[in-house]
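Practice problem 4.
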């Protein structure tokens, strides 16, 4: 069993079984799936997000593996990713409680509680009107460079996200956002993988997802080059030469993702 509980839950759950106590937390439920529940709760006026994982059974695990999907086997994936990102200075959530009971991945019970990041707006929403109403160039440049820095540091630290889209970057709005004074945080790490080194395949999948999610915000060719230079931490000429095959693959992959998205949206729109 693994268990780490800090305040306010250390006091709140004193003398209780944390695995039973977490199940009794009340709040707004954001997701209720077989094997996973996500909700927002408040303790002493402060918000927290709670993710509870219950074993999904060997049948579901085998089903995921047979379709080349890696199943989420518990809260440990998010806990490990959060700790690694903190170690290397990538801004993300702060976990205040984590528990894991049982060694069998099909029946394991686990949970993670993180502090709510508020007030914030997703980068997707912040940039939604950029194509029609271009932002101040300095702010746009600073945000691109920060996303690139965070992405590069994450991958160099051995973490790949698996849901790496601009909607999972939160821009803090507790004060006016300027090019020289802003904060971004990376969220939604429940599918993340943490290793000594990120495999190229998984790094590339993350980059493709990020590129696809930014297609609609009016990025210029220069914006994309700026991202690449900061992400790879190498002279742009070297990046364009050494990563030519990756850049071609990213373009094709993002186009396929876009086509798949449009087909899905079109079919849904007619139902």
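Answer key:
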């Amino acid at each position: 069993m693994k268990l780490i509980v800090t305040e306010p839950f250390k006091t709140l759950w004193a003398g209780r079984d944390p695995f039973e106590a977490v199940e009794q937390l009340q709040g707004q439920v954001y997701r209720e799936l077989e094997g996973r529940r996500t909700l927002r709760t408040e303790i002493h006026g402060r918000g927290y997000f709670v993710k509870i994982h219950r074993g999904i059974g060997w049948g579901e695990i085998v089903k995921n593996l047979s379709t080349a999907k890696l199943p989420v086997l518990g809260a440990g994936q998010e806990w490990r990713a959060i700790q690694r990102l903190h170690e290397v200075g990538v801004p993300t959530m702060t976990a205040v409680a984590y528990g894991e009971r049982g060694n069998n991945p099909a029946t394991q019970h686990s949970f993670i509680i993180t502090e709510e990041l508020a007030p914030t707006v997703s980068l997707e929403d912040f940039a939604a009107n950029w194509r029609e109403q271009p932002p101040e160039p300095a702010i746009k440049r600073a945000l691109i460079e920060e996303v690139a820095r965070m992405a590069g540091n994450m991958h160099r630290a051995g973490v790949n996200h698996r849901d790496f889209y601009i909607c999972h970057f939160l821009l803090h709005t507790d004060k006016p956002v300027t090019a020289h004074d802003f904060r971004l945080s990376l969220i939604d790490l429940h599918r993340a993988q943490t290793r000594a080194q990120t495999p190229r395949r998984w790094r590339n999948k993350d980059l493709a997802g990020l590129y696809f999610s930014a297609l609609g915000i009016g990025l210029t060719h220069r914006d994309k080059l700026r991202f690449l230079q900061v992400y790879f931490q190498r002279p742009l000429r070297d990046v364009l030469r050494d990563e030519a095959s990756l850049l071609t693959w990213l373009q094709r992959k993002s186009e396929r993702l876009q086509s798949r998205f449009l087909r899905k949206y079109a079919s849904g729109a007619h139902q």
